[in-house]
Amino acid sequence: MDRKSEKAVLTSGNLKKQIIELSIPMMFGMLGLSVFNIVDTIYIGRLGTGPLAALSFTYPVVLVLNSIALGMGVGASSVLARALGRGDHHKVVRYTTDSLSLSFFFIVVFVVLGELTIDPLFQLLGAKGDILGMVKQYMRIWYAGLLFVVFPMVGNSAIRALGDTKTPGTIMMIAGLVNTGVDPLLIFGIGPFPRLGIKGAAIATVFSRSITFFVAIYVLAGREKLISLKRAPFSEITDSWKKILFVGVPAAVTRIIIPFAAGVITALLASIGPQAVAGFGAAVKFERFALLFIMSMATVMAPFVGQNYGARKYERIHKGIRFSSVLSMGIGAVLLIVMSIFARPLASLFSRDPAVIAVAALYFRIVPFAYGMQGIFNISSMILNALNKPIHATILTVLQMFGLYIPLALLGKSILGTAGIFSALVVSYAISGTLSYFSVKRVINIHSKE
């Protein structure tokens, strides 16, 4: 067997075992990323309301730039996995190298634009006075370290396309732990370290992300030999960029749509009362941990399907989709039972306010009915990206959020109040999950006949 076919490790073997073994390290990697956000918020919160407000102002901008980086990562993973399945080693090297050069181009553009627009942008968002000053302190460091934020996202996606989730999962977890350890040292000035406040949080984030940067470069350039420094025709490079962006841009848009729609739902709940918003926020934070395995499985289905699509192993793709969908429904059923039984104890972990606890408990009794279908929806979206059908995935997300969830939430609120808003999510995922599953099956059947 030659080297180029050896890399397509997901086109043979026990697919059930492969999907599970890929998902577990991915789950721990996602946990590591969650640690980043939670730890920064906890430590900055101890500095007072002002610094916490400043960190909150940075969230939308950081989210958009992270979404763009993740979108490019999805695009890189999609084209790489398909090239691996075809056994085209030249294209594998070209796509890996060109995805990183494309990332570097975006980094330069966003660093320059970001530094020039800090004042007007954050003033537009409502930051002023001392809070604006703290925002500037944080974002100037964050922009300066953008290379260490964006490169690893794209690089880790490339590594996952090879069928290796252990390496990116491990380094993301390590980075989260490093951030947890360095944060208090720099924020509060423990021991020989100076007290830097919110600037310390930014430095800790960039420092911990730099670990993922160097490991990703080592794996791709040193271990896998997939980064080429040879001069390539510019037309070949731009061709790679077009293919990466064809998937990456819709994927980035999709990631931006989701929090925007969540903002609309938050506004609906705010009209009911602050306890409804607080209960919803607490429940969603816990939900992210409850769904870690399902979301990890959705992520790893992209390289699995991409490699097998490149190798034209369509029956293996069908089997993988059936297994992941059944597993998603099974895990969703378990979560439904557990969260229904322990709804109030779980809600009590986040608040002592009876009204907040009641809202969170209501969420835990209603929304888990959607978890299985939510998993299928996310699995299908990732598969469509792997099949080079990113527009299909974006359309399904727009339909789920704006065609179903928000209109149904408006209707549900008028009939059942908070329970109606939560029930709307269940109905929207039941419909969109079903549509997405059959959309994927249809796309694969069309390709199998070509």
Quaternary status? single chain
- The pLDDT mean sits at 89
Largest sheet: none
Low-confidence stretches: 1-6
Summary keywords:
single chain, 450 residues, mainly alpha, 2 domains, 85% helix, disordered N terminus
Kindly describe this structure.
Helices cover 85% and strands 0% of the residues. The chain is mainly α. The protein has 2 domains: 3-232, no CATH class; 248-448, no CATH class. Helix 3 (49-86) runs parallel beside helix 6, helix 11 runs antiparallel to helix 12 (314-341) and helix 15 (371-386) packs antiparallel against helix 16. The radius of gyration is 22 Å and the shape is globular. It starts with a helix and ends with a helix.
List the helices and strands and how they pair.
Elements (H helix, E strand, L loop, with lengths): L2 H4 L8 H31 L3 H38 L2 H36 L4 H16 L1 H16 L4 H23 L9 H26 L10 H37 L3 H17 L1 H19 L3 H28 L1 H6 L5 H13 L4 H16 L3 H27 L1 H31 L2
Concise structural overview:
With 450 residues, this protein is mainly α.
